[in-house]
Amino acid sequence: MRAPLTWLAEYTDLAPGASGADVAASLVSVGLEEEDLHGGDLVGPLVVGRVLAFDEQKQKNGKTIRFCVVDVGPHGQMLTEGRAQEIVCGATNFAVGDLVVVVLPGAVLPGGFAISARKTYGQISNGMICSEAEIGLGSDHDGIIVLSRLLGPERAADLTPGDDAIALLGLAEETIEANVTPDRGYCFSVRGLAREYWHSQGSPAGGFRDPAAVTTPERNERGHEVRVEDAAPISAVPGCDRFVARVVRGIDATRPSPAWMRRRLTQMGMRPISLAVDVTNYVMFALGQPLHAYDLDTLSGPIVVRRARAGERLTTLDGVERVLDVEDLLITDAGQDILGVAGVMGGAASEVGSSTTDVLIEAAHFDPASIARSSRRHQLVSEASKRFERGVDPQVAPAAAQLAVELLTAHGGGEADDGVTDVDDTTSPAAYRLDVTQPGRIVGVDYPRERVVQILRDLGCEVTATGDERHVEVRAPSWRPDLVDGPDYAEEVARIEGYNTIPSITPTPTGGRGLTHAQKARRVVANALAGAGFTEVLTYPFVAEDLADRLMISAGDERRHAVRLANPLSDERPLLRTSVVSTLVDALRRNVSRGHRDVALFELGMVFRPGGPLDQAPIPSVLTRPSDEALRQVYAAVPAQPRRAGIVASGHIEHAGWWGPGRPADWSDMVVAVRSVAAALAVPVLVVGDHGHRPWHPGRCARVTLEDGTLVGHAGELHPKVLAALDLPARTVAAEIDIDVLIAASDRAVQALPFSTYPPALTDVALLVRSDVPAGEVEAALRAGAGDCLEAVALFDVYEGDRLEAGHRSLAYRLTFRAADRTLTTDEVNGFRDAAVAVAAQATGAVQR
Amino acid sequence: MSGPNTDYDPVEVSALDPAAIEAASEDALAAIAAATSLDQLKAVRISHQGERSPLALANREIGALPPSAKAEAGKRVGRARAGVAAAIAARQTELEAERDERILVEERVDVTVPATRRTPGARHPIELVTQRLADAFVGMGWEVAEGPELEAEWLNFDALNLGPDHPARQMQDTFFLDPVDSGLVLRTHTSPVQVRTMLEQEPPIYIVAPGKVFRTDDLDATHTPVFHQIECLAIDKGLTMAHLRGAIDAFVRIMFGEEIRTRVRCSYFPFTEPSMETDFVCFACHGAGAGDAGGQCRVCGGSGWIELGGSGMVNHKVLRACGIDPDVHSGFAFGLGIERALMLRHGVQGMHEMVEGDIRFSQQFGMEV
């Protein structure tokens, strides 16, 4: 919301010499954030000029250029030695003899645009003839300003070339712009901002002159009939509880609005249009009451306010035909022809035009929720809907209508009807019994009772004493529907006293339990992976519909049951991920495309799975805590979102260098990564081959489980077809770990095993086995047969080659034995080894070499 | 410099001849001093201390002497032999020290050659900043609370006094699950964690809730559809806006430094009443508003202040919806975007760097910020 300082000064006393920045700062102190400052940033000379002659020439670029001679009074003498100014102009909307606005060399236009004499189209241009947009007067840059049109011929007749145009056009005036929060609808008016500024200055007596304090005629039966027939109020709130209608007859709609009004509208960021429209906008800015002007001749009967009927249509002022919803509140002519969507936008048919002579002014009050819904439904945000949505003062309508009538008759030459329609179903807000100590207890500042009462009265509240000293009855002013209970009043007291008087006291909780095991464990996982050389990234969880196909995930796999967004950012990615690897590969691909050949990434994040059919989440009442059963249903409807770690790598995991060649990342790096994560949490895991789990390579995928068989994740090389479908480098490897499973398994006190201080005995054994026997099984068999003294088994060599029987390989193990109570003898160790080999032979067909 | 005395004939030395003993001893000492390597010293030891060395032979001859001469000859030869042994031992120590020194010199390498076989990994700074803030609050006795990212609409909106007509509930702001009436959304803030905590725990409650949140914004320099917030909620008896300021001040000090001041002003949020907006003194220009080069400070844009985020006393409607009696307990909440904090504190230029996953971004930050 904008407000020119001169306009604010009409309603309140500005501090002497206050600049726009000062006023904005004062408004900030009472809770109105500064948005912008406009105006006051133009440096002259900017003068009135008269076009003496011009030579119009068509240029090679197709533009028509006028080489003008302009009388700019004494200013021209300085630059062109007594001759009128020669100025090149690209506009053609003026004639010889017109008064225009000329900016001369040395001036600076808004935006820091410095003007100098410069060559344009082959001639020196000593300045520029200005458009509205160039001097910050408006948005019009279709042509230059012709002052007789902008100001009216009478006013223009008094002007002399060389007159200062900055003062003439009010360009030195500053306009502040404040960001109005949704609870302060009344600040969408100069009236409201002036009141707030007055509060920022300590609310001095007589310092606020309410523009709504005008004498209004009593309502009577002679006005245009208005009927409110709301058959379907939303949440039992009537759609319209106030409707003031006034009629002005015999105006000349072609008369321009007065220059001061046009200037103010421009300063407000609104383009002047016609007298009737300008007046309604001006009054809206002044008082915050949106008005609508109808051409009375287009009305055939009473105005009826009603809800739309199914299938009704309306072409609004913006030329769009809209299908109406039964919730839309309408203004209609006799209940039939639709004049507009109440409080949002009028229809094209009843618009005031140049031939209009009789005007009906509507000043009404509508239910904020109803307006908000219509505005959103039709994606139509207007100055009116913005205000109604946030709450308009329901008692300001008669004053607003009166001001509009006065301005229309004063400048349009018409006469007001003596009929005054005022349908008033408003109710005064309920009084609140305020504990005067409550603001202090909420804010943490001890406000004296008298101060609280004084602040509330300054705000416009009616405050009356009750029987006891501690409580008062407060009735909020009509423009403050947001003031309902104690905290609302506490905020008012705090902001008027100044938020910066609130002290800073560090709260002292009685002591927390620190991070939970899961929170600490997740950090351990992330740090372990980072320590192992993987770089953490965060990817968006949005995935494409066909991603499951490209990942070759089989039909029926639960990872295909992705939840779908109703309004995805891109239709290409409407689903939420069911695995972290599925989005992590996007980051891998991006890194590779940026020239990183060797990339190792990880991400910890949630995956989303509906876990069967999606239940609708109920929306219980918020007046009290929902029942346990209602809450259970809310919680149960939220799909499971387990946390996963995804890991991917491609290129070399170890670099080449002076020490030798590099080593490409392979399946084993992924298995090791999963094992190291499990080890970091001290959770024992088992690894077996998994041939059927996509997107992994059927021969290079490990399935990792807890010892009880619970799935932890998969690790290995991705399927070559998947890599091709996802445009990933060959031999890209990946792992996905269910962190929640590991964390649950690790949430226990590890029991320490005693260890022996006697020397270990080492013995090596080479076993010949069929190539399809997993090493994991051989090791398990050795462990099973080696007895209690076995301390470690290490596979230190794998050999396949000509010297062996075809289809076989040799696995060389080093077994470490140690007894708790003695040094083992060679015979004992050999016995253990033979026992281990015997079990391995029986279980896997292994033969000792 | 002489080599090992290999052609010396020891038979010429007689134990009875003091001059010969003296000469043999001097020869030995000279050879020892001349030995420049441990190998040479070994040869010298064999020649002059070995079984067939002159002094050993002289020593053997002593037995054949008459008893009257035995004592004196024995003394003479013994002294000579002890002198040689001591000299050998001393030279041995010297030469070993020289050898050890030389080996260390010979083993020198160029430690400046690059030797990284494996690029170190890194954490994402969003996570690190979150940890920093969470840890500081945990240190003050708060706890970390978490919740799902896909959330019930009731928990994300209704319970927070964001009624059905609130603008934030529109499709242009919030990701809804299909079908639209499923009652599920991608949470638009971390506040549903507050609601869950209040519903399930008895006051006093002091929690920080960090996490991922979602809005239907396209990615640009200042927006991303997926971003991170951290939010603090305290519910206890007698909490006031003064405590809220205190908590915010603690937060700002953790992030931007001990000396940073704050200022507060009135604002509006549906879930708090009274509501507050906080600015803190720009940590780069310390409120001066000027940059190093004399222009406007690039961090705060010249105002000298930086907007931190919204806060306030938890709205009584929210407390009631969560089963907390506002006549008994009061509370406050505040939060801010982690991305913005990261941009401010670490000079990150835009959102793209934080969301694209380029390894160069995370790798700048190491494991702690």
Structure write-up:
In chain A, 28% of the residues lie in helices and 25% in strands. Chain A has 849 residues and is an alpha+beta fold. Chain A has six domains: 2-39 and 174-200, Phenylalanyl-tRNA Synthetase, Chain B, domain 1; 46-168, OB fold (Dihydrolipoamide Acetyltransferase, E2P); 226-424, Phenylalanyl-tRNA Synthetase, Chain B, domain 3 (3-Layer(bba) Sandwich), CATH 3.50.40.10; 437-501, 2-Layer Sandwich (Phenylalanyl-tRNA Synthetase, Chain B, domain 1), CATH 3.30.56.10; 517-607 and 642-746, BirA Bifunctional Protein, domain 2; 761-848, Alpha-Beta Plaits (2-Layer Sandwich). The longest helix of chain A is centred in the C-terminal third of the chain and has 19 residues, at 826-844. Chain B has helices at residues 18-34, 38-49, 54-61, 67-106, 125-139, 153-156, 191-200, 241-256, 316-321, 338-346, 351-355, 359-363; strands at residues 143-144, 150-152, 184-186, 205-214, 226-236, 262-269, 272-281, 305-314, 330-337. Chain B contains twelve helices and nine strands. The mean pLDDT of chain B is 90. Chain B is rod-shaped, with a radius of gyration of 43 Å. In chain B, helix 1 runs antiparallel to helix 2 (38-49), helix 1 runs parallel beside helix 4 (67-106) and helix 3 (54-61) packs antiparallel against helix 4 (67-106). In chain B, strand 6 (262-269) and strand 7 (272-281) form a beta hairpin. Chains A and B meet through helix 10, helix 13, helix 15, helix 16 and strand 28 of A and helix 5, strand 1, strand 2, helix 6 and strand 5 of B.
